[in-house]
From TrEMBL:
It comes from the Bacteria. This is DJ-1/PfpI family protein. Residues 4-178 form the DJ-1/PfpI domain. PANTHER family: DJ-1 PROTEIN (PTHR42733), DJ-1_THIJ_PFPI FAMILY PROTEIN (PTHR42733:SF2). Belongs to the peptidase C56 family. It comes from Streptomyces rameus.
Length: 188
């Protein structure tokens, strides 16, 4: 059986931050599943940077089906986890089923890739304390409050945790995550 990787997300996730790792990891030979609060067609968004705006803008993005609901996930069946950003982490961090999934991955020290606002999820389960991370730069105070050392860098690798700021950092983020996977969770 191929090595499986789980992506956890929901409505209003950033389209590129879900679909780029989904496709890139499949290209490497991993079996990738997307989990959400329920099995349904998810509605993603596109965050972009436009002149004259003090922050990013948001537009409707792609839709994509969730393979399974959080309650159906067996974390032991997956070798690694991907946590996309967008607005989804703002509400997903309150989901008790997702919190169990996240905790299982961190307790087992399995590889985790997080990007943009995704670290809000790992902060919510107190898994960033004492670690080095990056995230969307506006989250620096949140990361520090979670006990993490924030670095404004393309990607930060701390053991099996690989983080990135936002979708422009995808090449460096996935390159580093795949390096971790080759060591910790190679393709069968």
């Amino acid at each position: 059986m191929p090595t499986k990787i789980l992506i956890v997300t929901g409505d209003a996730a950033e389209s590129l931050e879900v679909l780029y790792p989904y496709q890139r990891l499949r290209e490497e030979g991993y079996e990738v599943h997307i989990a959400a609060p329920t099995r349904k067609t998810l509605r993603f968004v596109v965050h972009d940077f436009e002149p004259g705006y003090d922050t990013y803008t948001e537009k409707p993005g792609y839709t994509w089906p969730a393979d399974l609901a959080f309650a159906e996930v067996d974390p032991g069946a997956y070798a690694a986890l991907v946590i996309p950003g967008g607005r989804a982490p703002e509400y997903l961090r309150n989901d008790p089923e997702l919190r169990k999934i996240l905790k299982a991955f961190f307790d087992a020290d399995k590889p985790v890739a997080q990007i943009c606002h995704g670290p809000l999820l790992t902060a919510a389960i107190d898994s960033l304390r004492g670690r080095r991370v990056t995230a969307y730069p506006a989250l620096e105070p949140d990361m520090q409050a979670a006990g993490a050392g924030f670095q404004d860098a393309e990607t930060v690798v701390d053991g099996t945790l690989v983080s990135a700021r936002a979708w422009p950092d995808h090449p460096a983020w996935m390159r580093e995550f795949i390096n971790v996977l080759r060591s910790e969770a190679p393709v069968d």
